[in-house]
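Hello,

Our lab assistant flagged a job as stuck in the queue for most of the afternoon. It eventually completed. Since we weren't sure the result was trustworthy after the delay, we are filing this so someone can double-check. Below is the sequence as submitted and the structure that was eventually returned. Let us know if re-running is recommended.
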Amino acid sequence: MIIIQLNQRQLKIIDIVKENEPITSESIAANLNVTRATLRSDLAILTMTGILDARPKVGYFYSGISEINLVGNKIEEKTVEEIMSLPVVVTKDINIYDVIVTMFLSDVGSIFIIDENENLCGIVSRKDLLKATIGGADINKIPIGMIMTRTPNVVVTHKEDSILLATKKIIEHEVDSIPVVEYDEKDKNLMKVIGRISKTNITKLFLEIVDN
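-- returned structure --
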């Protein structure tokens, strides 16, 4: 059995739920004197590992920490490399219109931007592209590099990272997906995109584990 290492706040959340179940996330946040947003990643981890059970419009229940929580163990064993999908990338000089077409043909929520040396230099989401079209600018002439979120402000993960770590990054930063990268051996500021981890990847993993 793999022992799940919980932080102090997660342990406090468990105690609060034990004493007050069912309890809403608002009430848990009030007990800890923090915001609901602050607890989002902690509650996600506790429910994904099976320690807490969440029921819509009811609240959280304590399920227990035992060997029965096999879902948490199976997730803990998985690495990003095992479930990542192929990335969708474009170069930073491509115009916004072509990126919009690429996004919808590929059916992804984010596209990763690379430079002339194929290193990650940015990312754009559906929201970024929507803002660009609403502005009234000529999207056939503006390069995507003008509106992308640039590195080092792009959240990334690595193929050897755990799924829980990647999931926590997605939840905390409220993004649809994050690039899986490998650092350049000579310059750690340069990164090659080798994959993509999205909410869809993670959902498919949970479904696979539960079905089995």
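-- support follow-up --
The delay was a queue issue, not a problem with the job. The result is valid. The longest strand covers residues 191-198. The chain has a mean pLDDT of 88.
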